[in-house]
Amino acid sequence: MSIGLAFSGSLDFLSLGEILQIIGNSGGTGVLRIMSKYAPSPGLVYMAKGDPVDAASGAHTGLEALFALFGWTQGEFSFSQEPVGHPNVINRNRMEIILDGSRMVDDGKVPVLGAVSYKADPAMQAPKGPAADQRAVCRLHVRGRRGRVLRR
Q1: N or C: which end of the chain has fewer CB within 10 A?
Q2: How many CA atoms lie within 13 A of 142 on its CB side?
């Protein structure tokens, strides 16, 4: 086994499940590093002969950490071939992990790590149609005094 970077890319292009499939199909041994600007530290997946044997993500380790990494949909990854000295703490089939991890994200059991999206509250939506009274003058409080805002 030659030691070094085997491949890298963007999570926008390949999901964690697809990356695990590629490493698994090639029988790769090494460390998959996943970096996201939304996480304080990278997620790590230790692979031996194509199967994940351990993982770390923040305070989580093992299978819990691996499932948490399925929620990382934005960022970069790199897989480097290197000896892995971690014991096998993940004793599940790779395909089972991929299917369960994907399902957990779809079911909302694993939070998606990324930009926070704003869901509008229907009660807070602006009224539709012409302005109720275009002749109205808005009053502003400027340094304790009322001022007028002119119409357009």
Answers
A1: C
A2: 7
